[in-house]
Amino acid sequence: MKPTVNKISKSDLKTSIDYHLRCSLCKETPTKDYRDLFLSTAFSLRDRMAEKILHTEQRYQASQTKRVYYLSLEFLIGRLMGNNLHNLGMFDVCREFMAEAGIDIEEVREQENDPGLGNGGLGRLAACFLDSMATLDIAGFGYGIHYEYGLFKQEIDNGYQREKPDNWLADLNPWEFKRTDEKCIIPIKGRIEHFQDRDGEYNPMWLDWNFIVGIPFDIPVVGYGGKTVNWLRLYGAGSSADFDIQIFNEGDYFRAVEQKVESETITKMLYPLDTIMSGRELRLVQEYFLVACTLKDIIRRYMKNNENFDRFPDQVAIQMNDTHPSLAVAELMRLLVDEYALPWGHAWEITQQTLAYTNHTVLAEALEKWPAALLERIIPRHLQIIYEINRQFLEKIAARYPNDVDLLQRMSLIEEGESKQVRMAHLALVGSHSVNGVSSLHTEILKQDNFSDFYALWPERFVNVTNGITQRRWLLGANPRLAELITDTIGDSWITDLSQLRRLEPHADQTVFMDEFRDIKRANKEDLSKIISDTLWLSIDPDSLFDIHIKRIHEYKRQLLKIMHIVHEYLQIIRGEKTPTVAKTFIFAGKAAPGYWVAKQIIKLIHNVGQVINQDRRVRDALKVVFLPDYSVSLAEKIIPAADLSEQISMAGQEASGTGNMKFMLNGALTVGTLDGANVEMLEEAGADNIFIFGLKAEEITDMIKKKNYHPVEYYRLFPEIRRVLDAFRDNTFCPDEQGIFQWIYHRMMNNEDSYFHLPDFSPYIQVQDQIEAEYLDPVNWTKKAILNVARSGKFSSDRAISDYNRLIWNKNAQS
Ligand code: 26V
């Protein structure tokens, strides 16, 4: 599909940009001010997208298309200018227009804030899915929160992470439409009055509630080719002017202002993934607020064409991105039963048929539970509904498996204990017709382990949809050199059908193609070296092997294993045990949750190891360690195209899928990884010769945990290379001026505490790294493998993932 629909001439674009410079920004034309140019270009694109939103809507209306609503507390959309230009088919025209005025479009793109409305993989996945739904012409819409402050900005001070607020809206956001006319009112708090209706049926009333106002902000989402423009609707919280006036009239000025401030606080900031969320009342309110605003909006739209709810599941699919929006189960039931007076059973059928749930993690500490007492205070009616859902559910279980009290306790939506807790995953599972994991390994683990009782009950509900990424952002946008080479070689159909990349395979051993491919990688590495030298004043050799570990800092992702390997290499070289054959640059980036002590220590460790190694003349030409601060989507776009080696070394069984792994593969890096998440499928696609797999498998680890036969101390005794690295942490080798700060690592291992299995995987990791070094010495062989990785990455397009959702979940009962 070629983006011909939108052909725009340079002079039309100029007219539009000039118009916005003068009329929207009140600035003189022409201008060389990058910020003004960014804003006026964005406004020009928004004009076009607004028109297309209306056309798209007319089409959806005419065909009565089923609509998909993707509910997520996070959308990590990244900068939009480049992506919108590409998808509208206007990138080249815009670049030329700017070039003629002596302006580099990249400088203009740099002006855009990168909205950090997500923590990591889950939020970025949601953004890739929006791009794919629009490109596939699916009526799919994102619903999320208009946080005033995104994820904190990371600064580094003496190697320590410092968090700074991310006030991304301080400047104008040119993409969004604020739709005050579509604001909604959401009830909260209050009490339940236990009434009976005329027939003597229980009919509770939710009374004396306060209310919050939800104000939608719509951001257009344009599909490639520009035919379809959907939108992402983000709700900001405000208070009602009418309500304020009432209190004002009562003469209580301060209470009126307090009420306003309290409401607006709800969407102030995104919560960073932290250890315990259940104490954070405001987070629960955010989850409820999103769900309540969204369902009101969905039903309002549905009711335009319908008189009752009979067609609701045929017209509406709601995907819950993890359990964060799982209160949708209770809220939809409340709306149907309390507000639209449907019988419970009918409402329940509709709810189940409409909702679907995606699980994104097996980490126990990440499974959401909320204290029942908190729910009772914030949303008393919902707690009642959850209890009723649970009562009916457990009744069925008891009938089917009599006398199994244990099972009832395990499956209950309520965890009994000192204080009752609501298990949100169980609520989502029971209230949906589908639950999916995000890679085949992850889905298997859900079936066999976390949700095995539910799998035994409803095997047909469990589906796998392996994650994917959009090639429009992660290749066409992020790696223009490689994109051009590919298009010159096989045409541009890969932009909307990534499986076409297979046609590169015959070129994988053709000298001319290989040389060009290698030159591109080298040019990308030069670009990244420049960024590193500009931000860190560190000079990097673009011919060194770029070995890259970028993602959230978490123990299960094992940045510590990577650092142990670096320390091992360093010690080997300075002790004369190894003559380095390949110069290596180790690049890290990632944020640690503000309350996660170990993760923050790991950042400090990376910096200190870097400081020692980068200053040591003995390894000057062999090793460099770099930590790029403030990881973000736009930084990832610059780092990934420059990678030779992609580190995906999580403890097996812990990384649900990973999506960074796919981005590296698509950009011609080789992967070193454990058999975890989607790495398993990357191995299947790439072939064992083209990926470096090492380490324990998920079931081996489970087995060791079950048998309690893993003792880190034994590894310390048995393996000199482990001993040496751990002793270096104990002996302050990397903190001569800050004595003792890394001893916790040594002590943990000596205490037999290594929950993430660093030590059993250490020797295999070193071995595979030695193999990698040897293979990198043969550039022809390496380049061939890199090309094969690109050629075989087609499965990992989010277009494939969205087609899977569409077929297996959103249209399960449809004929197509
Ligand atoms: C949540 C929490 C909460 C508190 C403690 C620490 C912690 C650590 C991780 C999480 C994960 C939240 C869900 C999530 O982001 N999962 C990621 O989803 C991606 C998209 O499916 C997937 O590729 C990643 O493997 C998965 O970690």
From TrEMBL:
It catalyses: [(1->4)-alpha-D-glucosyl](n) + phosphate = [(1->4)-alpha-D-glucosyl](n-1) + alpha-D-glucose 1-phosphate. SUPFAM superfamilies: UDP-Glycosyltransferase/glycogen phosphorylase. CDD domains: GT35_Glycogen_Phosphorylase. GO terms for biological process: glycogen catabolic process. Its cofactor is pyridoxal 5'-phosphate. The modification N6-(pyridoxal phosphate)lysine is found at residue 663. GO terms for cellular component: cytoplasm. Keywords: Carbohydrate metabolism, Glycogen metabolism, Glycosyltransferase, Phosphoprotein, Pyridoxal phosphate, Transferase. The keyword Glycosyltransferase applies. InterPro entries: Glycg_phsphrylas, Glyco_trans_35, Pyridoxal_P_attach_site. The keyword Manganese does not apply. GO terms for molecular function: glycogen phosphorylase activity; pyridoxal phosphate binding. It holds the Pfam family Phosphorylase. Its EC number is 2.4.1.1. Belongs to the glycogen phosphorylase family. Phosphorylase is an important allosteric enzyme in carbohydrate metabolism. Enzymes from different sources differ in their regulatory mechanisms and in their natural substrates. However, all known phosphorylases share catalytic and structural properties. Allosteric enzyme that catalyzes the rate-limiting step in glycogen catabolism, the phosphorolytic cleavage of glycogen to produce glucose-1-phosphate, and plays a central role in maintaining cellular and organismal glucose homeostasis. This is Alpha-1,4 glucan phosphorylase. The lineage of its organism: Bacteria, Pseudomonadati, Thermodesulfobacteriota, Desulfobacteria, Desulfobacterales.
